[in-house]
């Protein structure tokens, strides 16, 4: 699904319980002065992510929040896809960190798998961060917005900023990992800019053009 869905007046629910994602989405929404509420602040249940694609899971989460709250809801599903691992961890990126969300262990798992696959040179360590944003309205309308950034897996991890797998992802054309960048650098975009950097910012740029009247 894709297309144009006009954002309604009234609150927008950020349909995520991942505080790192919520923080980044709130950063991107700040210039638009919308009334924003998080799913956790509203006490909404976190639905089970049963989809096998980023789009399916994003729609599932947005639809669940819109149905439960009666409000428009914006959800994100995203993850790291490593070429030499057949696209893993992909939609299971969070699950690789376990119930306690230990991303240090998850990053170590990625590196161990790469070493086992003999992926020791940069060209064998290609990866992508992928994001799909889904906007669901109470009337049943849904639109999705994809974003992707290509890069290389580095080891050891670099930096303590961002969240998740950021410290091991070096985006193409840059000398610092996402874990070494400020939020502003990682997004690489504000309203009116031509190009975003991160996968989430690239998806948000499409959302802003379609739903927030951005050029």
Strand content: 15-25%
How many DSSP H or I helices?
Answer: 5
Q: Could you describe the largest sheet, including whether it forms a barrel? A: 6 strands, mixed
The total beta strand count reads 6
CATH architecture call: Alpha-Beta Complex
Mean pLDDT value: 92
Could you characterize what this model shows?
This protein has helices at residues 19-29, 54-69, 103-116, 183-187, 199-211, and strands spanning 12-14, 36-38, 72-82, 126-136, 142-153, 169-171. With 215 residues, the protein is an alpha/beta fold. It is 27% helix and 20% strand. Strand 4 (126-136) and strand 5 form a beta hairpin. The protein has one domain: Maf protein (Alpha-Beta Complex), CATH 3.90.950. Strands 2-1-3-4-5-6 form a six-stranded mixed sheet. The model has no long low-confidence stretch (mean pLDDT 92). It is built from five helices and six strands. The protein starts with 11 loop residues before the first strand and ends with a helix.
């Amino acid at each position: 699904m894709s297309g144009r869905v006009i954002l309604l007046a009234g609150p927008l629910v950020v349909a995520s319980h991942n505080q790192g994602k919520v923080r980044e989405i709130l950063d991107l929404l700040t210039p638009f002065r919308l009334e924003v509420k998080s799913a956790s602040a509203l006490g909404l249940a976190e639905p089970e992510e049963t989809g096998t694609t980023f789009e399916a899971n994003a729609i599932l989460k947005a639809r669940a929040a819109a149905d439960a709250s009666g409000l428009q809801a914006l959800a994100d599903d995203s993850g790291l896809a490593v070429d030499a691992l057949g696209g893993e961890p992909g939609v299971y990126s969070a699950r690789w960190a376990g119930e306690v969300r230990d991303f240090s262990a998850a990053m170590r798992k990625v590196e161990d798998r790469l070493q086992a696959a003999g992926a020791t040179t940069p060209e064998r360590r290609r990866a992508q961060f992928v994001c799909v944003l889904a906007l669901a309205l109470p009337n049943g309308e849904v639109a999705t917005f994809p974003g992707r950034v290509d890069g290389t897996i580095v080891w050891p991890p670099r930096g303590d900023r961002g969240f998740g797998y950021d410290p091991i992802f070096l985006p193409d054309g840059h000398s610092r990992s996402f874990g070494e960048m400020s939020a502003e650098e990682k997004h690489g975009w504000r309203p009116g800019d031509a190009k975003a950097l991160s996968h989430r910012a690239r998806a948000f740029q499409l959302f802003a053009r379609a739903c927030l009247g951005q050029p």
